[in-house]
Write a structure and sequence with these properties.
Distance between the termini: 29 Å
Largest sheet: 6 strands, mixed
Shape: globular
Radius of gyration: 24 Å
CATH class of the largest domain: Alpha Beta
Order of helices and strands: EHEHEHHHEEHEHEEHEHEHEEEEHHHEHH
Structural class: alpha/beta
CATH topology of the largest domain: D-Maltodextrin-Binding Protein, domain 2
Length: 412
């Protein structure tokens, strides 16, 4: 395998005067470095010449007159990038977007470059106090690959007329007043109770495969017992196939747990009576325990096989800068990941944006990106179905929780 850049230099070396006495570099485009950069991005971000990607490319060129860039934009969705890039990283794009849960695959394939010092300084500023976002781009080797552009998680929508502000901090308080719809049989959501109680997936940072799934023990059994009671609560409704959203409209539900993708439907179904908030806590043996959602990010990274590693690293960082994220929100309503934008005059007026950013910063856990995570989903879904189908009860909750954990030990 050819030697690859593990880390791009963040600054361009000082220009050298030519023997013929030419003017210093930067004084004329004639001295700019010519290059072509291939960029993979979503269709929505590059639909026409006035789209976000094209605008950001123009702005980047203005900031970097030392480059004369020909842009080769191609449509590759973030969900597909890893599958394509790992096949042959040497012909993948110079800069591309990917979903953070693909990070492990990309690092294994040597298809994504490590951040430069300048990019790391930018990331530290943009994720200050938000461990989840930084963890979403941190690999098992402890190094950081890629820059978050937007977060991805779920939170809570509710019927405002049913609950007080204080009620919204407690799942049990809401269950006492209204119908709460929750996807108990969906493993992306069910894990939030075990994670909130201190359970871990592949260690504290989600990168240690040997640590496995730790949702068992006395605390895990207590969570399972809580879920048995939740299932039996007359105000609990299992959310499947969009039934929770439909229930908001019909009046059969008052609370749903989902993400920003359903915001428009919630507003339509509840009219002026809609509200949104980060996740509540729940009462576990007399103690309030905070639910914690899985969270990840949409990322821009650079290809270590690029012919222009410095420019590629700089452009990936620019696409995820505070300026670019703000423009992304203004042009496409994509909620930013940058903590500095939480107080932006436009973003701060958007309650859905605030709920997502609050959840990621305060009530989330990074969704692990290592390959072993693929083995987590099905057993968790099956366990949730067992609870919902009343196969799990108080007499066997501890035993069946441990059997669930044993399943993971056999898979990992």
């Amino acid at each position: 395998m050819i030697a690859q850049w593990k880390k791009a230099t963040a600054t361009i070396s000082a220009c050298v005067m030519l023997v013929a006495g030419l003017a210093a570099c930067g004084s004329s485009n004639a001295n700019s470095e010519n290059m072509t950069l291939t960029v993979w991005a979503s269709q929505e971000d590059q639909a026409n010449s006035d789209s976000w990607l094209q605008k950001m490319e123009q702005e980047f060129q203005k900031k970097h007159p030392e480059y004369n860039i020909t842009w080769n934009n191609q449509v590759v969705a973030s969900a597909d990038a890893a599958t394509i890039a790992k096949q042959d990283p040497t012909v993948a794009a110079d800069v591309y977007t990917f979903a953070s849960d693909q990070l492990g695959t990309l690092v294994q394939a040597d298809a994504v470059g490590q951040l430069s010092d300048d990019a790391m300084a930018q990331l530290d500023k943009q994720t200050a106090g938000n461990k989840t976002m930084k963890d979403s781009v941190t690999a098992t080797d402890g190094n950081v690959y890629g820059m978050p552009l937007a977060g991805n998680t779920w939170f809570m929508y509710y019927r405002k007329s049913k609950f007080t502000e204080q009620d919204l901090t407690s799942l049990d308080a809401m269950l006492a007043k209204g119908k709460v719809s929750f996807p108990m049989t969906n493993s992306w959501y069910l894990a939030s109770f075990y994670l909130g109680a201190g359970g871990t997936l592949f260690g504290p940072n989600g990168t240690d495969a040997k640590s496995g799934v730790q949702f068992g023990g006395e605390t895990g059994a207590a969570v399972t017992n809580y879920l048995v009671d939740l299932r039996a609560n007359k105000n609990f409704v299992n959310d499947v196939n969009g039934s929770g959203l439909a229930g908001l409209k019909s009046g059969k539900t008052d609370v749903v747990f989902t993400g920003n993708w359903d915001a428009a439907t919630v507003r339509e179904n509840l009219g002026d009576d809609w509200g949104v908030a980060q996740l509540p806590s729940f009462n576990l043996n007399g103690k309030q325990v905070q639910m914690r959602a899985f969270a990840g990010s949409t990322v821009y990274g650079w290809n270590p096989y690029t012919k222009h590693p410095v420019a590629a690293d700089q452009f990936a960082a620019f696409l995820t800068s505070t300026y670019s994220q703000r423009q992304h929100y203004i042009m496409r309503s994509v909620i930013p990941s940058d903590v500095e934008l939480a107080t932006d005059k436009e973003v701060s007026k958007d309650p859905v944006a605030q709920a997502q950013m609050d959840t990621i910063a305060q009530t989330s856990v990074v969704q692990p990106s290592i390959p072993e995570m693929n083995n987590f989903w099905s057993p968790c879904e099956n366990f949730g179905k067992s609870i919902y189908n009343k196969e799990v009860n108080h007499s066997n909750a501890a035993d069946l929780t441990e059997r669930w954990m044993a399943t993971y030990k056999s898979l990992m």
